[in-house]
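Usage

Read records sequentially. Each one opens with the input sequence:
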Amino acid sequence: MRILLNIAIVIGILVVLLLIIAFFSKKDYAIEREIVINKPRQEVFNYIKFLRNQQNYSKWVMMDPNMEKDFKGTDGEVGFVYSWKSNNKDVGQGEQEISHISEGESVNYNLHFIKPFEARAYANMNTESVNENQTKVKWGFKSRMNYPMNIMLLFMNMEKMLGNDLETGLKNLKAVLEKK
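and closes with the structure output:
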């Protein structure tokens, strides 16, 4: 009985310690990757502003070709919503909405993840001319983990996890656009 009490006390102390650490730990994270595509800026922008085109380059969309997809609104315009639902736990369920477009320059998205966990995030894709026939594309992602879940940021390398997925998507985008 005494051993169980000691174990319970140690577990209680560890939980309290983790909660204290989480209180003082960062809650926000941001990841960005970039690539140069051998196509003019306007051509690249005209492709990335359409959410449906992510089916051709986004690693997350390509992870489950059988996922349910729904589209609402006019693609390539603010307010367009792409929803997905997948049995693959790495894809889950959620929606992405175009929240802002700076014509020829950037597209911003609001993301709402529903499953496997509830979360909100913001993403953006920016284009910048390197020269007449080359465009730098930056794909960024930022989010927040509220207390006490933010303790996971100490154990998860979001920069590597999400960064690798963004890099894969950008390499796919480059391959798609440079084939055209």
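Summary fields computed downstream for this record:
- Strands lie at 28-37, 68-72, 81-85, 93-102, 106-115, 119-131, 134-144.
- The chain is about 30% helix and 35% strand.
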